[in-house]
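Trying the structure run again after the queue cleared.
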Amino acid sequence: MKKLLLTVLLGVCTLSAGISQVTIAPTNLFVNDNSRFGTYMVINNSNENQEISVDFVFSYSALNEEGQRRIVEDDSISAEQYSIAENVRAFPQNFVLNPGQRQIVRLRIAAPNDLEDGTYWARIKTSATPEAPPVELEQTETVTASLGLIVEQVTGLYYKVGSVNTGITVNQIMPRVSDDGVLEVLTNYERTGNSPFLGSIITSLIDSQGNVVQQARSSTTLYFSGTHKQDISLGDVSPGEYSIRVEFITQRNDVSSDEIVQMQPVSSTTKYTLR
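Done. Tokens:
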């Protein structure tokens, strides 16, 4: 009697650790060239065994002229200049976690010794799927299958070499009001230095008396130059003359300031008439 081996995997990509029931800490890992070693923890919060695998890829987020963010995975030129994905090893790379169990994953970066000063990076791709034996089915007219949910969590790995620095130059602030009454602030910027900008962008709407009437803040990573878009709800804001201030600061709630490449705050202001 012939038997069929049927395994159906449903791939789901997510940045949310809560969805997978397998959590990762920290979500951004920083290593310098003096140690070349780093660790992160994988915790199984589900009620079933989870098969875990660790891999490394090079990618980054980029902003187009409309401020729309996309993930770039096929930039071979930037990968040649900044990637350490091929130089990282995980110990262990594949393992099984029982319910409630946790595992420390150790990373070793075997990067060349002649790298120029700067920050290099990769993405840690941690995949989790419930452990289950293959489903063996007899060949009949009706075929059923068990779905195994694979969840990939992608987190940041940054490798700092020598003297690192970052900077932001604001070229232009371009405000506009959308059809649904939201103030869209497009900020064209140039990222300088030898490292990505990790920090927060604060956009403020300021009235003629110097009062901040509305404000929006977002944490982000800027790898290269581009245009950042931030929406401000106008609510009950009255028409009139305003200033729009955009600030870039190297502070984030989810990353220690000791890990972030620091710079002096940068701000730029433009006038805007709200009609």
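Residues 195 and 262 are 10 Å apart (CA to CA). Worth checking whether this holds up in the mutant runs.
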